[in-house]
Known about the structure:
- The protein is an alpha+beta fold and 212 residues long.
- It has two domains: 1-35, no CATH class; 37-208, Gcn5-related N-acetyltransferase (GNAT) (Aminopeptidase).
- It has helices at 11-16, 21-35, 47-59, 80-83, 114-117, 145-159, 172-180, and strands spanning 39-40, 85-90, 96-105, 128-136, 164-169, 184-191, 200-208.
- The chain has a seven-stranded mixed beta sheet.
- Strand 6 and strand 7 (200-208) form a beta hairpin.
- It is globular and about 45 Å long.
- The chain starts with 10 loop residues before the first helix and ends with a strand.
Amino acid sequence: MNSLLQNNISFAANTADGITLDNVSFLDKFSRYQLLEPELLTDDCRLQEIYDLRLSVWEDSGKSEFVNSKLYPNGWFDDLDQSAFHWIVTNDENKIVASARLNIFNSLEEFPYYLSVKNFLLPGKMPFAFFSRLVVHPHYTQNKLSRKLFIARSKFCEERGIRWSKVFINNPLIIQQFEKSGYMKIGQANVTYHPCANPHPVNVFIKEIDNF
């Protein structure tokens, strides 16, 4: 992507347009923020870039017990990735700096973590969506990308008549984001992301869509 600001703007041009050298950096940051918008992935060749970003972010997050290069030497991915819808955010060098995925299911039984949540009181309406694998590169955490990715996926669900959605969350900031959007915690489940890893607890949140 090309920056909306040209790097070779002269001082005279800046002054004439009401832009000084002191605020060029501010405007450049603003333009970059405007460019950092989620888009639905259409090129499967970039999935590996997503897997590598997930691994890198998790290894640097202090949660490497569950996700690390020993368990996932080829990046963090699972069977859901092939059937998922993926959203990405790219910077001005076309590098993926954030991503998130969404899976849609027509029955509870086809959900891969069904055994972990089957005892919860879950809606019977179908289909439902599962939000997962939200990651943001540490250099871009101040750009509200997690919020943008949430909005993009939620809009996608509304447009396709999804009856309710589910998400596993442990991050307090992300929990606040989902709670503000109407998600309610229904319990805590133990899940395993890798056969060689120990189960760990996750908070289970759901939201029913009211327009049906």
